[in-house]
Amino acid sequence: MNQKRTFGGLLTVLGIIGIICAALVYLQVANLGITKFNAWVPFVLGLIFFFAGINLIRTTGDRA
Question: Is residue 32 in some structural domain?
């Protein structure tokens, strides 16, 4: 089991969750008491996690 690929998958999933939560707050579907301006913080963090996870998965080679 490759730990880098597992960690990359975890980062990707956390990034997707962060992007979805930020979008729901921005569209005011979820009433979490966060303003539209403050919704950019989880969105940017979600993007960073998402692309870091995708990059880890893509660049890690498979070993037999």
Answer: yes
Q: Is residue 11 part of a domain?
A: yes
pLDDT digits (tens, 9 = 90+) for 21-41: 888 888 888 777 777 788 889
What distance in Å separates the CA atoms of residue 63 and residue 26, rounded to the nearest whole number? 42
CA angle 40, 17, 48 (to 5 degrees): 55
Q: Are 5 and 59 in contact (CB under 8 A)?
A: no
